[in-house]
Amino acid sequence: MPKGQKRSNQSSSQRRQPSIPRRNDPSRSHGRMTRSPQSLPPDATARLLEALAKIPGGATGHQIAAAMSLGPSAGRDIAQTLRQLVEQGQVLEVRPGRYQVSGSGGEYSVLLEPALPGAAHGVVMQATFPDGRILPVHPRHSLGSKAGDVCQAMIGEDDFVLITRVIRRTGREVVGTVNFRPQGLVFVPDNRREGEMPVLGTFSDFHNRYQAGDRVLGAIEVDPSGRTGVTLSRILGKDSPEITDFTYVCVTHDLPDAHPREVEEQAAAVPKDFPPGEREDLREKLVFTIDPVTAKDFDDAISLERRPEGGWIVGVHIADVSHYVRDDGTPLDTEAACRGTSIYLINRVIPMLPEVLSNGLCSLVPNEDRYTLSVFLEIDQHLKLVGKRCSESIIRSRHRLTYEQALEILEKKDAPGQWPKDLVDTVRTVGDIAQGLRKGRERAGALNLYSVEHRFTLDVNGMPVEVSQETSDVSHQLIEECMLLANRAVAEWLESKGFPCVYRIHAKPDEDRLGQFVQILEAYGIDGTNVFERFGLQAILKRLDQEPRAAKLVLNFMCLRSFKKAVYAVENIGHYALAFESYAHFTSPIRRYPDLLVHRLVKRALGLRDYKSVEMRPSYLDALAKQSSYLEQRAELAERTLHARKSARYLSLRIGETFPGVVTGATGGALFVQMMETGMEGMLPVRELTDDYYEYDNERMALVGSRSGRVFGPGAEIDIRVISVDIERADVTFGLAPDEIDLNSKASASGGGRHSKGAPPGGKHQAEREDKRKRKEGVRSERKAKRRR
Question: Please, which residues have CB within 8 angstroms of residue 757's CB and are 6 or more apart in sequence?
């Protein structure tokens, strides 16, 4: 269909079925029940669009309100207006909470419909744009969408529509609650961005079984009048926590189910042998892997050789997924692109590839031949990268090490007896090289932020029974530095060959948010004026290593909030945090689709016969990059949602117990608190601070007592008590522990508690609190031991 054709050019016989909402009809709101913004001026929508269009890269609701010179009270109405504009296709939510005008950045909101008779071969859908244009959807770039879906899309060089995100999938399941109103049943999704929808139908015995607050599953459907609503299917939560939580997360974030049968069949049919052919044969070399003890998919391996001129050649050998998953539009590739990434949900994995590939033919298991794509990194005596080479290869891994085993080799002077001397020597040499590379990155201005990861241990029913802290040591850094260098080298190698690349880019931090970080630093007596320069920010982060753990955690968190998210793109702007001018993801094609794209581009640059048709058009690669960025964000949100639900379940069994915590943020109505031992988060309402009247101090971003002057701001260490838990909403409410209330009373009586420069917010009773905490440690340890028994 010619570019720019309008709907008005169609005859009445060609108009679409009434069950699909029109872009400019009232039903375009998809049946959402919305209120009119109350506090915005009459021309607010036009002003909002004008303000948003002037902000490069899009903006949050707060940034839009500031650009419109509106106060905090307008926040709710700004959010409501943005939701309406998203529904109308005028605005895109490019990532959670960040918006841009449709069409800016080359992306649009489109409504999909069945293609008209006579469409190009293979075309089954067409897309209607906000201005009425209609263009065909490329059959290989539909992201699993169907007619009736609302999508985010780009336009290719050949005028085909390339879907980058499914905004609203018709027929997909949603989870939420039901309200009984005079006009009928109303479905209220847990994802507030969905908006309320009418209930079109219920399951049998719904009215007898449903209780207020129950979570229900339903499917989004469009009735014959074009109204969108929800047909309820069942009540969620009657199963075990394992099933309920997993189902909730999958439905809430529209995660994929098991691989379709045709995908599994195609994967099962690939050849199981490994003839070397024209590949570089590395099977006689010492090649080894280092992975977590629970890993099943080993996608990277390491080798080491001396360089004749001095220095080393580090070989990084990556599973050759592109040998099996071709750029040919078959079900295997289409499904991998639609998934974008493997999703790790504590004790479950939703894999990008079928297990016959991810855990089988592509996994670099020891003592088995495997196809790899290798990059050889030439490093001189000063640990400078002086050469790089890519090659199709075949390897046979000699050893499979866990991180714990590698750490033992690296840290023990006497070589562990169970490992051959050549392996021990090689691991130690690569470990030394990795530490040198790490120092080199620091000299170049790389930023290392302190963070703590926690892991749940679940029982058979999915209830969390233990929380442990994950560590990162020199064994992890060995692999990390080798992979970082390989990723950088491949991006530079493709550039040197004149080929495009799907880059992993990271923009400079947001200056407004860096300004907030400076405010917090000043509360600690730290001069933050240099954070706007790379090396100044690096120096601040090193300075934070000297702070107590709570302060270090919060200050690094505040710094991280000022960073923009790393994404995939075909236009290179470098990677700010890593201090790399060029960087790509190459080392994990089993679990990341962008790595698979880069592998294909490398093979085309190598001139390999079977890869001469690999996609290189900029718009197509850009669409795949944007699609992959969205799918990565979806996976991260799903993982966070599950973590929050498991945290709520864990704390639901500990109502009334006290724990050490640290304030991570404050508003006029509450403190946000993270538990020091487990990293779990909750809210402490201001009503729980009963010793004084607390007001929010914008300059200090903290609650300040009007009489005592006590400050509760980011970094304040407080003992908290678990008051209540809402598992379904994953909401945890804290109060002050009894000991903390006593300290509050002392602060109030003495008029003290105001923190001074160089001291963390939270008062001058920190030493007393620390003494009490140490005395209680033995009690906590005994409680934990009893729970284990």
Answer: 522, 523, 524, 525
Torsion on CA atoms 575, 579, 583, 586, rounded to nearest 10: -110
Please check whether residue 320 is in contact with residue 365, taking contact to mean a CB–CB distance below 8 angstroms. no
602-637: pLDDT as tens digits: 999 999 988 888 888 999 999 999 999 999 999 999
Residues with Cβ within 8 Å of residue 4, at least 6 apart in sequence: 133
- Does 2.102.10.10 match the CATH number of domain 654-788? no
- 372 vs 316: CA distance, rounded Å: 9
The token pair that represents 32 in the structure block: 């959402």
Segments making up each domain of the chain, as ranges:
7-168, 173-238, 262-505+569-639, 511-563, 654-788
**Residue 716 DSSP label:** -
CA dist 593 and 322 (Å) reads 10
> How, if at all, do strands 288-291 and 399-402 pair?
parallel
Of the candidates 755, 759, 660, 767, the residue with the CA atom closest to the CA atom of residue 705:
755
Q: Check if CATH label 3.40.1350 holds for domain 173-238.
A: no
The label of the residue with tokens 């170049």 reads 444
654-788 matches 173-238 in CATH topology: yes
Number of residues assigned to the chain: 789
Cα–Cα distance measured from residue 501 to residue 482, given in angstroms and rounded to the nearest whole number: 20
Cβ atoms < 10 Å from Cβ of 379: 20
- C-alpha angle with apex 542: 538 to 545, nearest 5 degrees? 145
Q: Could you give the CA distance from residue 292 to residue 283 in angstroms, rounded to a whole number?
A: 24
Q: How far is the C-alpha of 300 from the C-alpha of 591, rounded, in Å?
A: 12
Q: Which tens digits make up the pLDDT trace of 447-478?
A: 988 888 889 999 999 999 999 888 789 999 99
Phi and psi of 781, rounded to 5°?
-60, -40
Q: Which of 532, 582, 538 minimizes the C-alpha distance to 562?
A: 532
DSSP-derived secondary structure letter, 360:
I
Contacts of 427 (CB under 8 A, 6+ apart): 288, 401, 406, 409, 410, 478
Query: What residues have CB less than 8 Å from 557, skipping those under 6 apart?
Result: 451, 664
- Whole-prediction pTM: 0.87
DSSP state of 211: -
Q: How far apart are CA 702 and CA 745, in angstroms?
A: 19
Q: Is the dihedral of CA 743, 749, 754, 758 positive or negative?
A: negative
